[in-house]
Design brief:
The complex is a heterodimer of chains A (about 500) and B (about 70).
Chain A lengths: L2 H20 L11 H6 L6 H12 L2 H14 L6 H26 L4 H9 L2 H32 L7 H21 L2 H29 L1 H12 L11 H15 L3 H8 L4 H10 L1 H19 L10 H9 L2 H39 L5 H25 L2 H16 L2 H9 L5 H21 L6 E6 L2 E6 H22 L16 E2 L4
Antiparallel strand pairs in A: 1-2
Helix pairs in contact in A: 1-8, 1-9, 1-16, 3-9, 3-12, 3-13, 3-16, 4-7, 4-14, 4-16, 5-6, 5-11, 5-13, 5-14, 6-7, 7-8, 7-16, 7-17, 7-18, 8-17, 9-10, 9-14, 9-16, 10-14, 11-18, 12-16, 14-15, 16-17, 18-20, 18-21, 20-21
Chain B lengths: L1 E2 L15 H6 L17 H24 L3
Classes of the chains: A mainly alpha (about 500), B mainly alpha (about 70).
């Protein structure tokens, strides 16, 4: 049991807990209204949004799983870097439009937008369900991040005792998310992101020098992983499509959209598209921890332990405690935002839509608070009771599924040419194709080798599914337009997609 | 609320946002070890450089398309 590390860990954990509860008073608003609880009143400026979205997108699971991938599978593990490079030009071009139309019409979810743009309950439901189902395993996996650092500090036991710290941590998270809504993870994100930057800069100052410099680190990794150190020709299409597909999908996740909707102006989103890449550089160095671990002689069959083991071996105990706290807190922020986003979706697009159309903003807020609690409990159950592979497989599918909401949500922002039933059919086709590919792969990976003509092309299953999705969407659109089936009423006007608030 | 009204000409700037995709989505062009920079193989430092390049491009497009 590493007592020094544990004490520092608990100290920082206690700090963010206090911050979480106090954040209810920050930028005061009536938290009994869903706009305030679920979107912090749409008042976050550039700096807060940078911390919030950064903390939201770069999760504990990212910090544990990506270096683990580099350690185990070599160069393909670096896909997180091109992935997080191309997200931002895409977000810059697309997200301000979504923000504007949401602001104008009071949308709190992408599903709201579907209803307003296409007057299609089915499309709205499809997008809502996809969003909820894709988010849940992601929350569960953040718990894995907390679990591995607890394990590394020597907190082990059997049965329920082993999971007690995790349960306590999550109970506390659930409590302050309930009271403060989105303000809680936003305020904690400031602490978390500062801690992560300090940790990585600290590691970069200490570890490469100890290990003999980056040149030596890469050489050792090359010697240990001769087949995978450099990307071979067979892996090119897999690498490119993994990055591309993941990038397009990221801002479709409910928690990313919640982050966008909580911004106070279009300018906040655009400026952050230029500023958030700082985290991508951070991610590049975090990924390389995988090779540093090889050089440091870390040997483990369970690759999720690579980063904690490296930290324990190369850093003094007090810094290890700080680093572990950063990772664990790094799980709390996205878990909170994801549960709020899923709650917003369920409350607005399922509860209010199908059960209580007359629900007031106050009632919505009450329901959302409860749902976010339930969602977190579900995630806890998943990780404590079921094997991790269940959550990992569902997360894999979740990434494939959420990309299928791109045609309705993103194309819908620019044009109404696509027919709503075409989009629904395309969505369904994409879901079916992607799920089938994952099953055929026996969930061993998200890259599917498709046989076309005489050649075999391995590519990210989500991208194959999206292609199928688009083909079906276009064909059905052409048919339905020819037969003159109605495309529903459009609540929005072109100018709505460009409105802005007074702040620049 | 004001409307973000951009003159038609400035929409061209958005095309620049495609450049980061071209630079990074085709690993066949950059999957090499040499030349190394500060110990980093080309494959790795090339992609890290593109983080900076695409942030600069995005910022340039932001400045160019801002309402005066």
């Amino acid at each position: 049991m590493n007592w020094t590390a544990l004490i520092i860990f608990i100290a920082f954990f206690a700090l963010v807990t206090v911050i979480g509860f106090y954040s209810a008073r920050w930028r005061r608003g009536d938290l009994s209204h869903i706009n305030e609880w679920g979107l912090a009143g749409r008042r976050f400026g550039t700096v807060i949004t940078w911390f919030l979205v950064g903390g939201d997108l770069y999760t504990a699971y990212t910090f544990i799983a990506i270096p683990a991938l580099l350690y185990g599978s070599g160069a393909i593990g670096f896909f997180g870097v091109p992935y997080t490079i191309v997200i931002y030009p895409f977000a810059f071009a697309v997200m301000p439009r979504l923000w504007s139309v949401a602001r104008k019409h009071g949308y709190i979810t992408a599903s709201d937008f579907m209803k307003g743009r296409y007057q299609s309950g089915s499309l709205a439901l499809a997008v809502a369900v996809t969003g909820i189902v894709a988010t849940m395993p992601y929350i569960a996996l953040q718990l894995v991040g907390i679990q591995v650092v607890l394990q590394a500090m020597g907190i082990t036991g059997t049965g329920i005792l082993a999971d007690l710290p995790l349960i306590v941590a999550f109970a506390v998270l659930a409590a302050y998310t309930y009271t403060s809504g989105l303000r809680a993870p936003a305020s904690i994100a400031i602490v978390k992101d500062l801690m992560i930057y300090i940790t990585i800069i600290g590691i970069l100052i200490v570890v490469p020098a100890k290990l003999g410099g980056f040149g030596h680190i890469f050489d050792t990794a090359k010697a240990a992983r001769p087949a995978t150190f450099m990307l071979g020709p067979k892996a090119f299409s897999a690498y490119g499509t993994l990055a591309f597909g993941s990038a397009l999908a990221l801002f479709l996740y409910p928690h990313a959209i919640t982050g966008v909707f909580s911004s106070s102006s279009r300018g906040v989103i655009k400026r952050n598209a230029a500023l958030l890449p700082a985290y991508s550089l951070l991610l590049a160095f975090i990924t390389l921890l995988g090779y540093m671990a090889i050089t440091a002689g870390i040997q483990t069959k369970d690759t999720s332990l690579v980063v904690p083991l490296l930290i324990l071996k190369e850093l003094p105990s007090w810094f290890a405690g700080f680093a572990f706290a950063a990772i664990a807190i790094g799980a709390l922020v996205p878990a909170a935002i994801m549960s709020i986003a899923a709650a917003n979706l369920f409350t607005r697009n399922i509860y209010k839509e199908y059960f209580r159309p007359g629900a007031t903003s106050q009632e919505e807020s009450k329901v959302a608070k409860l749902v976010s609690l339930v969602v977190k409990l579900g995630a806890l159950f998943f990780i404590v009771v079921l094997p991790h592979s269940y959550a990992i497989n569902l997360q894999l599918l979740g990434g494939v599924w959420i990309l299928q909401t791109l045609p309705p949500v993103v194309f819908g922002l620019f044009t109404r040419w696509f027919h709503r039933w075409g989009l629904l059919a395309g969505w369904f086709a994409g879901m079916a194709i992607g799920t089938t590919m994952a099953i055929l792969n026996q969930f061993k990976g998200s890259v599917y080798a498709l046989h076309i003509g005489g050649s075999v092309i391995p590519a990210y299953a989500a991208v194959w599914a999206l292609i199928g999705n688009l083909i079906v969407t276009v064909v059905v659109t052409l048919v339905l337009n020819a037969v003159k089936v109605s495309n529903g009423a459009d609540q929005t006007a072109e100018a709505d997609y460009r409105i802005d608030t007074a702040t620049t | 609320m004001k409307v973000d009204r951009r003159p038609g000409r400035s929409k061209v700037w958005y095309v620049l946002l495609v450049i980061p995709f071209i630079g990074t989505m085709f690993p066949s062009f950059y999957s090499f070890d040499a030349p190394r920079l500060w110990g980093f193989p080309f494959f790795y430092w090339y992609q890290m450089l593109w983080v900076i390049i695409s942030a600069v491009i995005t910022f340039a497009v932001y400045l160019a398309t801002r309402e005066a």
